[in-house]
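Dear support,

Our group has been running a series of protein-ligand predictions, and this particular one with zinc ion is the one our PI (initials K.S.) wants archived with full inputs and outputs. We had some confusion internally about which version of the output was final, so please treat the block below as the authoritative record. The input we submitted was:
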Amino acid sequence: MKGMKTAIWLLAFGSMAVLAAGAGAAKDPIRLLLLDGQNNHDWKATTPVLRDMLLASGRFSVDILTAPPKDAPREAWGSFRPDFSKYKVVLSNYNGQLWPAECQAAFEKYMREGGGLVIYHAANNAFLEWSEWARMVGLLWAPATYGDRVTVDREGKVIRTPKGEGPGAGHGPQHAYEVILRDIKHPIMRGLPLKWVHAKDELYHGQRGPAQNIHVLLTAFSSPTQKGTSTNEPMVFIVPYGKGRVFVNLLGHDQVSVAHSGCSALMVRGAEWAATGKVTIPAPRIHLNKK
Ligand code: ZN
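Confirmed final output from the archive:
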C-alpha cells in the first residue's frame, strides 16, 4: 500500500513537473521578428521552414513582417516602420530594396543598444550602400573592391586579404560539401559534431566587407573542382555591433538545404545566442553524411 501511495505521489509530482516545465517554456519565449518580402531567392518557401524550426525549438515566439514588393508604389513603404524594440532578435530573410532612412536609423539604434540580428543566406547580399549594415554583417556578397576578405588556412589560422586582392563574391554549382567547426567552445557550437557533410547547397566564396572583429565559427572548403577558390571559406560567423550581436549563416539556399539537421541547429542556436548571448537549446543529432 505504501508502495502504491509512493507510486501515485511520484506520478502526480511527475506530471506537475512536466506541466511546470511546459509553462516555463511557454511563459518566457524569445520574441523574434522574421523579415522577408523581397529576395532573389524563394522567400515564400523558406520563411515557413525557418518559422517552424524556430517554433519547434520551444524557445521563440515568431512574428513575420513582409516588406512591400519591389514594384510597390513609394507610399507602400510609408507604413513600413517595424518596432524593433519589441524584439530580442531580428532574422533577415530579405534581399531587396533599401529600407527607408528612418527605418535604417531605428535599426542601427536597436542594434547599438543590444539588439540581435540573424543573417540568413542571401540576406548578406542586401544593402551594400548602407555602411552601418555592412559593419553589422561583416562580410557581404560584394565585388573584391568592396572590402576585405577573410578565409581560414589549413592550420586553422584566419587570413585577411585586403580589398581589391583575390576573388570577389561568387559560388560554383550546388553540391553537398563538408563543413568544419572552427570554435568548438563557442556556445552556438558546443556539443555539435566537429564536421559533417551539409546538404546540396551553394558554397559562397570571396565575401567582402569591413569584417571588423568577426569570429569564424564554421568553414567549408571551396573546391576548385566545383569552380571554387581552393581555400576554407567562412560559412558561419558572428560580429559584435555596439552592445548587439550578429549571427551570420550563409548556408541554406533553399527550403531543403536550410532544413538540413546541421543547418537548422545552427539557425536556432545562433538566433538564441544573438538574442541573449547564451545557448540553452540542446545540440540535436546531426546527419553526418547527407548527400
Ligand atoms: Zn542562394
